[in-house]
Design a protein that fits this description.
Blueprint (H helix, E strand, L loop, with lengths): L4 E6 L7 H8 L4 E6 L5 H8 L4 E4 L7 H6 L5 E4 L9 H7 L2 E3 L6 H17 L1 H9 L17 E5 L3 H12 L3 E5 L5 H7 L2 E2 L3 H5 L4 E4 L13 H6 L5 E4 L8 H10 L4 E4 L12 H4 L3 E3 L8 H21 L13 H24 L6 E8 L7 H16 L9 H7 L3 E7 L7 E8 L4 E9 L2 E7 L2 E5 L4 E8 L4 H11 L4 E8 L5 E8 L5 H9 L3 E8 L1
Parallel strand pairs: 1-2, 1-3, 3-4, 4-5, 6-7, 6-9, 7-8, 9-10, 10-11, 11-12, 13-14
Antiparallel strand pairs: 13-15, 15-16, 16-17, 17-18, 19-21, 19-22, 20-21
Helix pairs in contact: 1-13, 5-7, 14-15, 15-16
The structure holds 1,4-dihydronicotinamide adenine dinucleotide (NAI) and 2-oxo-3-(phosphonooxy)propanoic acid.
2-oxo-3-(phosphonooxy)propanoic acid binds next to loops.
GO biological process, one term: L-serine biosynthetic process
InterPro entries: ACT-like_dom_sf (IPR045865), ACT_dom (IPR002912), ASB_dom_sf (IPR029009), D-isomer_2_OHA_DH_cat_dom (IPR006139), D-isomer_DH_CS (IPR029753), D-isomer_DH_NAD-bd (IPR006140), NAD(P)-bd_dom_sf (IPR036291), PGDH (IPR006236)
Keywords: Amino-acid biosynthesis, NAD, Oxidoreductase, Serine biosynthesis
């Protein structure tokens, strides 16, 4: 019977599009539970216990404790962009893929930010409030035009670029500050690239912010920067609370250091009633509504449902923030290499020199001409299992685990086929010694074709005994007799030597693993240099 997957649509009064939910409900192997009342962590923990997937917007928080409880969890889908309500490092550690829907709410958020800029310039909410309170006041609400003004866009990504296009249509001159924006892209958007944040913002009549909240961007607009702005400057933040120091902003507005602020996002959401910013003059606020349009919600709701469904049913990975993408075509092509890469990593870890600090993966042939990111992660996973335990390492956290152990990993790719159509070679080195195993596929079957630079041919199955010895007569008889006398049966054998009278390598496939005593006896045989027992 096909596996059943339980999917939790989790929210805190921030609904996911019914079209997305229906798409999941139509799948017979999915059990879809919708709970929009998950404000408290305890409720979220309870609701997540036995689920395989969770879909959220920004309201429900997926914390470390939720991961502790959700032991079946495979994937989290964020119907939107920001994943700051999900503990992504913990997700990665647990091997849970986190996917989002970049792009689906871009236009809506750019439109919301633009609306905020216009409403701030024309004091629209304040004017509205007086009318509904019975006043007709035409003196207090003189505004300013945006036409001809300088707009500084901080973060020229998807939303920033859409904002900039609209601003240009309104006759604004646009300056961009974004350390990752190329000059070509700035030129094609028709904006002036400024490489220095402080130099950019002092020119601004308007500043709009469109970047994620990271340690680098936290409090990017602080008291010092606010003090450097033109008195006429107005700030719009429709990205994330915390990009601006809200307390410093409240002070700057109260002191008249700047002329206004329009915010869709706050450092604390929702802001408490005594939040100083709420009392500051010249503000326009909305409660995190950037993505709250019919169109955006339908886009992100359907997209997240589709990618979660594809992940659970087919293993594809799209829009993941903690893993490379794997589409069905790629998965079909590299699927066998993933398993094999993991196996090669596991084998090399068993013959690696002590304190290996570099793992090198060399691809050649067809496999080397494609994207090998995921195969390398599979190799690393296999290699690291001995060090940290198989449960602790997965495709998502493999690079981080390696980094923590001080293990460097290098990759080389040669599209040309050598002796084999596809070859993956994994080497581990501690600087003075190196061990390596290379493998390929023969008619779809995996084969080990090289060990420690010696050509050999073995199926990677069962227990392998690797013996390096001086190339002289009598060696095979010596080790065979020790194995025989200890009831260890040899199922297969492959021999290789570098040169006559040099060092020979034997790879034996055994029916059982020799005891440590038998391995020690083998190592004592004159002429035997090294013995390794490796389990596949
Ligand atoms: N208010 C709302 O409802 C919504 C808010 N957002 C938020 O808007 C923000 C932007 O979203 P997108 O444009 O889709 O993201 P994006 O990834 O397309 O753009 C982000 C841009 O910020 C730039 N950036 C990164 N670090 C920077 C730094 N230190 N200084 C200046 N620029 C920097 C990046 O290079 C990138 O170009 C995100 O934080 C997202 O969560 C998105 C949708 C709705
Ligand atoms: O997509 C984002 O980053 C947003 O901030 C939108 O949040 P929401 O889905 O409206 O809770």
């Amino acid at each position: 019977m096909a596996q059943k997957f339980k999917i939790l649509i989790a929210g805190n009064n921030d609904p996911i599009s019914s079209k997305g939910i229906e798409l999941l409900q139509a799948e017979s192997s999915f059990d879809v539970v919708v709970n929009m009342n998950l404000k408290e962590e305890a409720a979220m923990i309870e609701a997540s216990r036995d689920v395989h997937a969770i879909i959220v917007r920004s309201g429900a928080k997926v914390t470390a404790k939720v991961f502790d409880a959700a032991t079946n969890l495979k994937v989290i889908g964020r119907a939107g962009v920001g994943v700051d309500n999900i503990d992504v490092p913990v997700a990665s550690k647990r091997g849970v893929v986190v996917m989002n829907t970049p792009g689906g709410n871009t236009i809506s958020t750019a439109e919301q930010a633009f609306t905020l800029m216009m409403a701030l310039s024309r004091k629209t909410p304040q004017a509205h409030a007086t009318i509904v309170s019975g006043k007709w006041d035409r003196k207090s609400f003189q505004g300013t035009e945006v036409y001809g003004k300088t707009l500084v866009v901080l973060g020229m990504g998807r939303i920033g670029a859409e904002f900039a296009k609209r601003a240009k249509a309104f006759g604004m001159s646009v300056v961009a500050y974004d350390p990752y924006l190329s000059k070509n892209r700035a030129d094609s958007l028709g904006v002036t690239l400024c490489e220095d944040l402080d130099a950019a913002i002092v020119q601004a009549d308007y500043i709009t912010m469109h970047m994620p909240l990271t340690p680098e961007t936290k409090h990017m607009i602080n008291a010092k920067r606010l003090a450097s702005l033109k008195k006429s400057c107005r700030i719009i933040n429709c990205a994330r609370g915390g990009l601006i120091d809200d307390a410093a902003l409240a002070q700057a507005l109260t002191d008249g250091t700047i002329s206004g602020a329009a915010l869709d996002v706050f450092e604390t959401e929702p802001p408490p009633a005594d939040y100083p910013l709420l009392k500051a003059p010249n503000t326009v606020f909305t409660p995190h509504l950037g993505a709250s349009t019919e169109e955006a919600q339908e886009n992100v709701g359907i997209e997240i449902a589709e990618v979660i469904k594809a992940h659970l049913l087919l293993g594809t990975v799209v829009n993941a923030v903690n893993m490379p993408n794997v589409d069905p075509k790629v998965l079909n092509e590299i699927g066998p290499f993933l398993k094999f890469g993991e196996l090669l990593g596991r084998l090399v870890s068993q013959i690696a020199p002590a304190r290996s600090n570099v793992v090198s993966i060399n691809y050649s042939g067809k496999v080397g001409s494609g994207d090998t990111t995921l195969i390398s992660r599979a190799v690393l996973k296999g290699f690291l299992e001995r060090a940290v335990g198989a449960e602790q390492v997965n495709y998502i956290n493999a690079n981080g685990v390696a980094e923590n152990l001080g293990l460097r990993f290098t990759e080389s790719r040669l599209p040309e086929a050598n002796l084999f159509t596809d070859l993956i070679e994994v080497q581990a080195s501690n600087g003075s010694e190196t061990a390596s195993i290379a493998g390929t596929f023969f008619a779809g079957e995996p084969r080990i074709v090289k060990v420690n630079e010696r050509h050999i041919e073995t199926r990677p199955e069962g227990t392998l005994l690797l013996i390096e010895n001086q190339d002289r007569p009598g060696m095979i008889a010596a080790y065979s007799s020790i194995l025989g006398k200890n009831q260890v049966n040899i199922a297969d054998m492959s021999l290789s030597r570098n040169k006559e009278g040099g060092t020979a390598l034997t790879l034996l496939t055994l029916d059982s693993c020799p005891s440590p005593e038998v391995l020690a006896e083998l190592e004592k045989v004159p002429g035997i240099v090294r013995v390794h027992c490796v389990t596949v």
